[in-house]
Amino acid sequence: MYRGDVPGYVVLADGTVFAGYGFGTQGSVLGEVVFNTGMTGYQEVATDPSYHGQMVTYTYPMIGNYGASDHLLESAEVHSRGIVVREVKNTAWNATCPEAWVDWLESRGVDAAAAESLAGTPLTLEAPP
Question: What residues contact 15, with CB distance under 8 A and at least 6 apart?
């Protein structure tokens, strides 16, 4: 599933709703929302055990633009419970990354959501101090 086939939402504990679209697998995820500010390394973050059970929000505006590859894993499995981005790309343009990012997430059972209103400044501004 990719690019607006299904609505996706992030609902915070205080009732704030960020609407967008889903990608990856279809489903619901409950968990702590955390942030990653890296410009690269999105696959490494998803497989980093320190993010186990959390919904990772990438603050860099576009994620997925160079693809995915097994050589970029921090561990053998995806530890993030969910992925939230502003804009997602499902490309495999880098010669060392033969698999597209959204396809890689879906094949590993990861729920994800994207929209301009979901990630980056609007969502991070809702974070408690």
Answer: none
Look at residues 3, 2, 5, 106 and name the one whose alpha carbon lies nearest to residue 46. Answer: 106
Find tokens 């968990």 and name the residue. Answer: 31
Radius of gyration of the chain (CA): 13
Phi and psi angles of residue 58, each rounded to the nearest 5 degrees, phi first: -90, 125
pLDDT tens, N- to C-terminus, the chain (129 residues): 455 678 888 888 888 888 888 888 888 888 898 999 898 899 999 999 999 999 998 988 889 999 999 999 999 999 998 888 888 888 888 889 999 999 999 899 888 877 655 655 566 666 665
Q: How far is CA 91 from CA 32, 69, 86, 98, 103, in A?
A: 28, 12, 16, 9, 9
